Amino acid sequence: MEEGRWGVIVVDVQGDFTTCKGGPLAVPDSDEEYVVEVEKATRRLKEGGFVIIGTQDWHPADHVSFFSNHQGMKPYETISIGGRMQTLWPPHCIQGSPGADIVVDKALFDAVIRKGLHKDFDSYSGFEDDRGVKTGLDEVLRELGVGRILVFGIATDYCVRATAIHGIDYGYRVVVVEGLCRGVAPDTTEAALREMEERGVVVVREIKNAPIPLEVS
Ligand code: VGL
Ligand code: ZN
User: Fold this and answer.
1) Measured CA distances, 99 to 20, 23, 69, 93, 102 (Å)
2) pLDDT value at position 212?
3) Which residue CA neighbors atom 2 of ligand 1 most closely?
4) From 9, 30, 57, 156, mutation site for ligand 1 pocket: most ligand atoms within 8 A of C-beta
5) What distance lies between CA 64 and its chain's CA centroid?
6) Is pLDDT of 215 > 70?
7) Hey, which residues does 203 pair with through a beta bridge?
8) Which value, to the nearest 10 degrees, does the dihedral of the CA atoms of residues 178, 94, 129, 17 take?
9) What is the pLDDT of residues 139-156, one digit of tens each?
């Protein structure tokens, strides 16, 4: 499979995660300029023949990851649920809300994969949720003959990290473009980049440094 076509996974570039839309979980430096840069890069890759897939965090209002659904808890605290550690976030990406919208041109996507739909399970990974139920991303990539993926988006230390590592586990060749990612916090972002590399992900600063068959400046 590693010899298949190239695909791109644009992870969770949604209003609630960006400063340009004033999102409740806006990650640092996710301004208009960032979104435009992601959109430009994605368009370029699409024109270069890459399959483009978006992931979309898509939670019900009573989702387990929202601090407000746990009495006495505050945002960014962690609790143990069902033997798993769950970070508690401000409510975000509620199904059908404006903030859940993907903020790059959706016409660029061959498919959008939604995740985190079950109220009791989070899903940082675009491939499967915390109970191991698949989202359909792997099937879509296989159907399209994709064996190598370029991954970027939000957040480096959560959904990009989980998606890239699962990409390796599922047998893909995975390249993460660091400059097109934004993280929640510097220390966890740095740790995530190192962990991804340890797991076999190729981390590059810009697309032009990526080992891909395309002239992109
Ligand atoms: C994400 C926190 C909560 C992400 C999603 O897209 O990285 N982070 N839900
Ligand atoms: Zn979420």
Assistant:
1) 11, 7, 19, 6, 8
2) 86
3) 158
4) 57
5) 19
6) no
7) 176
8) 10
9) 999 999 999 999 999 999
